[in-house]
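User: Sequence recovery, please. Input:
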């Protein structure tokens, strides 16, 4: 018995052939890996979906990242009351906001349907996975993103409970996870979704 295999969308179609004749065929439909995330924008590689609204979706996790990795600038992890820190900076994004970047005052309008409070700092694992694994994002290979700096970005994760003065950062030129004191400034790259 021979089998011709055709991949159609997310199903595998196998036509069983008796001898060399197509007269007796049977179609067997076998679902492939469950498709959890659908790209409605432009797929960049197999992992990144540019949603066309200033966001990029990680098709492996469903997390939505701000397309402009340099928007958040550098901030300390936590600051005294009244000062902008990394958490406050990440949390101020919402639908329709005119977002300014850098000295040249480049701007874009966030058009993703998000509400104030949807955006946050990524966890250490989320940020580390962004910079490692299949189609990793690095400052030298930005994939669907813009402005990825070759320096460190804050995660929301404290180093460990015994040392609450430090938090994890990821170095975007190498994908290495390190920790630093929360009083120092590192880049802020907002994400939404997930935990």
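Assistant: Recovered sequence (195 residues):
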């Amino acid at each position: 018995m021979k089998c011709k295999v055709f991949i159609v969308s997310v199903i595998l179609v196998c036509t069983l052939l008796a001898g060399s004749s197509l007269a007796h065929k049977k179609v067997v439909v076998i679902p492939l890996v469950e498709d959890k995330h659908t790209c409605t924008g432009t797929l960049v590689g197999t992992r990144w979906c540019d949603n066309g609204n200033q966001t990029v979706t990680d098709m492996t996790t469903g997390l939505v990242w701000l397309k402009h990795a340099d928007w958040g600038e550098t901030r300390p992890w936590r600051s005294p009351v009244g000062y902008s820190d990394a958490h406050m900076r990440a949390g101020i994004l919402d639908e329709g906001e005119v977002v300014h970047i850098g000295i040249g005052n480049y701007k874009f309008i966030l058009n993703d349907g998000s509400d104030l409070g949807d955006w946050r700092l990524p966890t250490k694992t989320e940020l580390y996975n962004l910079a490692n694994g299949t189609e990793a994002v690095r400052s030298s290979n930005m994939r669907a993103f813009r402005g990825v700096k070759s320096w460190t970005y804050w995660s929301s994760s404290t180093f460990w409970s015994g040392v609450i003065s430090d938090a994890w950062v990821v170095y975007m030129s190498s994908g290495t996870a390190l920790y630093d004191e929360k009083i120092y400034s590192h880049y802020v790259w907002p994400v939404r979704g997930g935990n």
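The longest strand covers residues 21-31.
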